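Re: the request from the purification team.
They wanted to know what the chain is likely to look like in 3D before they choose a buffer screen. I agreed to run a prediction and write the result into the notebook, where they can find it.
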Amino acid sequence: MIIAEKSDRGGDLLEKLGEWVRGLAEGVFEGEVEAGYSGEGWIVLEPDEEILMSSIRLQTRIDPIASDKPPHTARISKLWEDRILIEYPSRGGRTFRKRIPAERFAAALGYGGDDPAGFLRGVGLGEGCPVSVAADLPSSLQLRLLFEQALKGLDRLLILNAVASEVDQILSLESVKALIAGYENLTLLTHLAYLRLGVGLEKAAERLRREFEAISGKIVVRALPWRILAEAARNLRMYFPSLLE
């Protein structure tokens, strides 16, 4: 199966990812799960079994498995001040790329200011991040996810290029547990940790960066302040009340 994610980490990530996915289906799937890269750099998991797909979908907020129908899980490969470049694979591995005005993309998420690129980075949609899209705009799923995050009223840390087992390992450390209120897997390699009230965002981000450095210097931790999301969420509630029920 083609996964709508890329990574510049080596075989250690692939090995850990295969082991983690295999563990999801333990007891109902016999055999090994192999992870690799397609010719265009997308992650590939074998075998292409429905039980593995179902297990992955149950553990992620955004379905990371390539689809030929919208919504598509895309990767933000470039973010300029005025436009955004997304890419996503088909089930057969073909890559589709779309350039979209950053202002239009941010407006679809409830933002009406003059720094759409800064807003997108601030809500976790910067370069390398996953996003659910339909008709070249954030899908209803993406809107709901951001709205749910806003309702929590907590600053967040976005963790990129890491397997869930690695995130579990770091967030269970005594030096880290007191900072974190909870976390969720957005996709197989992207995770969102919520900070406890009163915890300093930049301080927590720096702590996690140091801890993840011991696993791989290519794991990225980004600080996402709640305040950037709050105004957009109010607009979403105003303009899309039925969508966000």
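For the purification team: The mean pLDDT is 94.
Please add any questions underneath this entry.
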